[in-house]
Amino acid sequence: MKRIFSIFIIASLLVLILSGCTVLPASEETGVGPKEYAEMREAEKLKKENEGLKTTIEDLNTELEKIKKDYLKLSKNKDSLDSKLSDAEAKLDILENDGVPKFISEETDKNSIMAYLNNNKKVLDKSLRGIEIIDNSAYDKVLFYTTGYGESFNQIFIWETGKEKPELIDNASFSKKGNISAIDEKFLLIDTGNNEEYKILDIENNLVVNTFYSVQNVFLLPDTSTFIIQKPETNLFELYDFISLKEQEIDLDQKSRFTSFKRDDASGDLIFEGYYNDENEVSYLFKATVKIDTLKEKYDVLTLNQSLELKDDGTEEQEKSMVESKPEEEVNDGASTDENSETGKAEETEGNLQ
After folding, report:
1. DSSP 8-state assignment for residue 92
2. Residue 77: which domain range?
3. CB neighbour class for 172 (10 Å; exposed up to 12, middle 13-18, buried from 19)
4. What phi and psi, each to the nearest 5 degrees, are found at residue 277?
5. From the CB of residue 166, how many other CB atoms can be counted at a distance below 10 Å?
6. Quick one: which of 65, 136, 258, 265 is 20 to 30 A from 102 by CA?
């Protein structure tokens, strides 16, 4: 019994000693020890964490790209909204402005200018104000006028291609009762509707070059620069060349009694008419018929192109004469002392048309 107890004690001691010094054998599956295995597990854990971080970074980059795209889209929308707001404010100004409105366009070719004006015209269609484009294909510019603005009611503008803004033409305005008409696409005749006043607008030079007056509506002799007018001072009929400013009284028998004229649609002739009441209160109708070609021939009426050529030649001759008349040293220096020029009075031609 004592022996068995001793063996039990020894066995217990061996178990205690061996349990404190136990070393696990290498894994049969991996062939590595516990320390190496723990390091591998830690490495795998770090690897998984890195992969997770990489995925997170990729997701963040994707989200960042999406945010950038959204920002650019919002920025474009903002620019678009700002542009639309600016355009709306400009249209509102055109609609509400009591004075002459302001026009501006970044697109400056002829078609874009026309589109811009037509777009603004739509805003005004239902109001008392408006924009009217004047047909003209001779020049690379757009002619138009505004209606319902300012004291003059109608104001003419010329918008040249390549420019962001049109030019308001000084003195090129007319009232509600007035109107405009083209002269060979080079000029505009402006009936101002005020006090029998007419104006000539030079389209090429963007300038009102002439103002004249007539009691009744003027008549332009075809293909010429000459109008038939009725002078307010005398009520007599005259031929008036708006290029040379030459005036010639039309010689008619009993000319002081003619008060109106018209063109006969059938024959194309000009018919001057007037009335006379005698002492017995009998009314007489006076009528004179004149062929246009006869009128042109009798008074040496020039065509429009001839008048323009003579004007250009006269300007060149005048400039040449002024240069030749200067002392040599003044010519060389480019100085000018002649500030006055004489204008010769046009010689009037009178005769009997009959």
Report:
1. H
2. 48-96
3. buried
4. -110, 125
5. 22
6. 136
